[in-house]
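S.,

Sequence below, as promised.
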Amino acid sequence: MKTTMPFNLLKTRLSGLLVASLLLGACSRDGETNQTTASGSGNAGSATSITIKGSDTVLPLAQQQAERYMAKNPDASITVVGGGTGVGLAAMQEGTTDLAMASRGLKTEEKLKLKAAKIDVQEVLIAYDALSIIVHPNNKVNQLTREQLEGIFTGKIANWKEVGGADEKIVAYSRETSSGTYEFFKEHVMDKKNYANGILMMPATGSIVQSVSQTPGAIGYIGLAYETKQVKSLKVSYDQGKTFVAPSMEAAKDKSYPISRPLYFFYDATVAGRVKSFVDYILSAEGQKTVQETGYIPLG
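The prediction came back faster than expected:
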């Protein structure tokens, strides 16, 4: 299923002094440069300010939720910045973000660091996501097994002819190590094996989409919500080639598509009073409707 993100023109009013507008499009999905600041028309003195940072997978969803929440709560101001799950969690530990977006759970070492910093971490499951394997549209290959994907990203399979394609070198793209998607793919698709040295690490999911769309021999992995007509998603088999399933919201919901994962917000309990209303909105029926409309899988 192809999903087109409904990014609207946001009008930003900060403290009644600054008015700026920005268009959230495909080009605004890349890492740290992708920042949304929105606030309503309420009095600056009563405004609630929330900062959200982290996973590029969660980023488009958080932007849409922030926009719609702002429309209902004119006294609030929300800033959303990408950069990767690791970046968001580090910012939470440093106290520079209220909510950390994550496309994976906390690692043991992260839990220990947060405990040492006396941070009472709260975890909120907000949605699910399917991970799409994408190639250039002209690639003849339409499906791959988990074992073949493991071989490609560990470097054991280097030519498309080895998996039924043309005699062409495989160019594999991955997220960088700070990304929760990088960690999830390594654990659940590569069976915890190491990436090949020649893998091209990209700073943001949007960069993978762009690179794969421009490189005939390319392959990469992205969140379902990032799919575009410029790339082709592959069917995947987790039963040694007996059954191949294409990524879609329906297949992720009924768990027939094997590469799906939970998405989270993490926050320090000390900011609960500031973020609770926004978190409750995301978990509400209206918020979960936005989850589905934005290309993710709702909780219910």
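Residues 1-46 have pLDDT under 50 and may be disordered.

Coffee later?
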